[in-house]
Amino acid sequence: QVQLVESGGGLVQPGGSLRLSCAASGFTLGDYAVAWFRQAPGKERERVGCVTSDGSTVYRNSVKGRFTFSRDNAKTTVYLQMSSLKPEDTAVYYCAADRWACPDAGEVVSWGQGTQVTVSS
C-alpha cells in the first residue's frame, strides 16, 4: 500500500464546507482506488466513500449529496470536498489507497495521522 498524507481539516460551523486532501508521495494515485474513512471518538472507523481509478464513486448514505471526490491533474492528490457539514461529521478523517479495489477499513495495513474535522458552532 502506498503512503498517504491527509490534510485540510479544521473547525467549521454547521452548514460550512471544507476540502480535505489525500496526497501521495513518490507515487501517482491515478491507478489506485482511494477511500476516505473517518473515526469519531468512541466509534469505529467507517468508510465515507471511495473513488476508483476509472472515476466511479460510492458514498455512504449519510454523506450522499454533501461530499464529493475529485483528483488533481497530476493524479497525486485526491480531494474530499465536504459541504453542508453537520456536527455528526466531526471525526478524524483518513484516506487509504488500493491498486485493485476500494479498501475496507479492515484491509488497510497502515494508516496515516489523519486530519481532524470539527463541526461546531
Walk me through this protein's architecture.
- The chain has a six-stranded mixed beta sheet with strand order 2-10-9-4-5-6, with no helix packed on it. A four-stranded antiparallel beta sheet has the order 1-3-8-7, with no helix packed on it.
- Helices cover 0% and strands 45% of the residues.
- The chain is globular, with a radius of gyration of 13 Å.
- It is built from no helices and ten strands.
- With 121 residues, the chain is mainly beta.
- The chain has strands at residues 4-7, 10-12, 18-24, 33-39, 46-51, 57-59, 67-71, 77-82, 91-98, 115-119.
- The mean pLDDT is 93.
TL;DR?
The chain has strands spanning 4-7, 10-12, 18-24, 33-39, 46-51, 57-59, 67-71, 77-82, 91-98, 115-119. By secondary structure, the chain is an all-beta fold.
